[in-house]
Design a protein that fits this description.
The complex is a heterodimer. Chain A is an alpha/beta fold. Helices cover 42% and strands 16% of the residues of chain A. An eight-stranded mixed β-sheet of chain A has the order 3-4-2-5-1-6-7-8, sandwiched between helices. In chain A, strand 3 and strand 4 form a beta hairpin. Chain B is of the alpha+beta class. Chain B has one domain. In chain B, 38% of the residues lie in helices and 17% in strands. Chain B is built from three helices and three strands; from the N terminus they run H-H-H-E-E-E. A three-stranded antiparallel β-sheet of chain B has the order 1-2-3, with helices on one face. In chain B, a hairpin with a 2-residue loop joins strand 1 and strand 2. In chain B, 12% of the residues are buried. The chains are: A alpha/beta, B alpha+beta.
Chain lengths: 271, 115
C-alpha cells in the first residue's frame, strides 16, 4: 500500500496543447521506473487517454460504476499490456454527462491512493466544471503550454485558479518547442514564457513528428521509441518529477554548426 | 524595451521585427487585463476619472497621457504617465482657481500596487 501517493493534475486551459500526450508518456515513464501509476481520464465528455495508450477496446467499467458500487475498483482499472505498473481509469463515458461532482472525484482519487504511488489526472480543457472537478482531487499540478500567445494566455488563467485553490507545487511544461523558430526569434523563448507565467520549468518537449506516429499506433513514444527527441524530453520530465537534477535541453544547442552560432549571435541583447 | 542584434538589423533593413517580441508585448498587456478582472469599460472609466482629478490641480497634456496596467512576475501595477504642461519659463502650469497654496509640483508618475 502506498502512503505518500502524489496526485498530480495535468492541465492547460487551452485544448490541443499536449495534456493527454504528456499524461500518457509520463505514466509509462513512471511505471517503467517501478512506480505503480494510475492515469485518470477526467475528461469523460471527450476522452482520449485510452486511445493514446492503446487501451480503447479494453474499457468495460468507469469510475462512475465504481462509485455506484456496480463494480469493484480493480474491475474498472485497465492494466497496460506492456507496463504492468500502469493502469488507466476513465472517469465516465460521454453518455453519462452531468454526474460528476468535486466530491465524487475526491472519493475516487482516495481509492486510487490506496494502491498507487502516482495518480496522474488528465484534466479536460477549459476552466469550467470539468476543470474544477479535476482540481478538487489534486494536490499538485503540471501546467502544459505551447510557446504561442493563446496557449500562454489560457495557461495564465489556469495558474490563477490553481493558486487560489492552494494547489502546489505548480510546475510548467513547455510543449512543442521548435528550436529553429526560437533561434530566429519567431517563437516566444523559454525565458519569455517562464517570466510571463512565473512558474518553475519542469521541462520542455521538442516538436517531434514521431508523436503523431505514436498516437496512430496507440503506443506512447516512451514505450518503444526512446531515441526520438520528444521521448527523451518526457523521460527527463519524469526524472525531474522525482527530484533528479537533469539539465534542460538548450534548444539552441539542438541545431549545431555555423547556422546555430550565427543565430545565437543574433540573439545577443544589445540594450 | 529589450532589443537584440537581430531586431537592430531588421530595423536598419526596414524589415518587420521578429514576431517573438511582438508576441511577448501583446501577451504582457492582455495578461495585465486578464489578471486584474477589470473590463475595458471600467478601465476606461477609471482612466477618465484619474485624468479629471489630476486636471483639477495641474494642466496635463491629455493626448500624451497614458494610464495602463503593467505586469511583472505576477504582480500588476497601475501606471499613470501624465505629462504636465509647462509655461514659457519652464514652470509647471498649476490651475489658478483651486489650491493657490499648493506650491509643490505634482509627480508626473504615479504607481500603485494592485495584485
Amino acid at each position: 500500500m502506498a502512503t505518500d501517493t502524489r496526485v498530480i493534475l495535468i492541465c492547460s486551459g487551452k485544448g490541443g496543447v499536449g495534456k493527454t500526450t504528456l499524461t500518457a508518456n509520463l505514466g509509462i515513464s513512471l511505471a517503467r521506473q517501478g512506480f505503480t501509476t494510475a492515469v485518470l481520464d477526467a475528461d469523460f465528455g471527450l476522452r482520449n487517454l485510452d486511445l493514446l495508450l492503446g487501451l480503447e477496446n479494453r474499457i468495460v467499467y468507469t469510475a462512475q460504476e465504481v462509485l455506484e458500487e456496480e463494480c469493484r475498483l480493480d474491475q474498472a482499472l485497465v492494466k497496460h499490456k506492456q507496463e504492468a505498473n500502469l493502469s488507466l481509469l476513465p472517469a465516465g463515458n460521454p453518455r453519462m454527462l452531468d454526474w460528476l461532482k468535486p466530491d465524487d472525484m475526491r472519493r475516487i482519487v482516495d481509492m486510487l491512493k490506496e494502491q498507487f504511488n502516482y495518480v496522474l489526472i488528465d484534466c479536460p480543457a477549459g476552466v469550467e466544471d470539468g476543470f474544477k472537478n479535476a482540481m478538487a482531487a489534486s494536490q499538485e499540478a503540471i501546467v502544459v503550454t505551447n510557446p504561442e500567445v493563446s496557449a500562454v494566455r489560457d495557461a495564465d488563467r489556469v495558474i490563477g485558479l490553481l493558486n487560489t485553490n492552494a494547489i502546489k507545487p505548480v510546475q510548467l511544461v513547455l510543449n512543442r518547442v521548435r528550436p529553429k523558430m526560437m533561434a530566429n526569434q519567431e517563437m516566444l523563448s523559454i525565458d519569455d514564457v517562464t517570466d510571463i507565467l512565473a512558474l518553475p520549468l519542469l521541462g520542455l518537449v521538442l516538436e517531434d513528428e514521431q508523436v503523431i506516429v505514436s498516437t496512430n499506433r496507440g503506443e506512447p513514444l516512451t514505450l518503444n521509441s526512446l531515441n526520438s527527441p520528444a521521448a527523451k524530453c518526457y523521460l527527463n520530465i519524469a526524472k525531474r518529477l522525482q527530484g533528479e537534477d537533469i539539465p534542460l535541453i538548450d534548444p539552441l544547442e539542438e541545431s549545431s554548426g555555423f547556422g546555430a552560432k550565427f543565430r545565437r549571435l543574433m540573439q545577443t541583447k544589445i540594450f | 524595451m529589450a532589443m537584440t542584434l537581430r531586431d537592430i538589423i531588421n530595423k536598419l533593413l526596414r524589415r518587420q521585427r521578429a514576431s517573438a517580441s511582438t508576441a511577448r508585448e501583446r501577451l504582457q498587456l492582455v495578461l495585465a487585463h486578464d489578471r486584474s478582472d477589470l473590463s475595458t469599460e471600467l478601465l476606461d472609466q477609471m482612466r477618465k476619472e484619474i485624468l479629471e482629478v489630476v486636471a483639477k490641480y495641474v494642466e496635463i497634456d491629455v493626448d500624451e497621457g497614458a494610464v495602463s496596467l503593467e505586469t511583472e512576475d505576477r504582480m500588476t501595477a497601475l501606471v499613470a504617465n501624465l505629462p504636465i504642461k509647462r509655461t514659457m519659463s519652464g514652470q509647471i502650469k498649476l490651475k489658478e482657481p483651486i489650491n493657490k497654496s499648493e506650491e509643490n509640483p505634482q509627480e508626473t508618475e504615479d504607481k500603485e500596487q494592485n495584485s
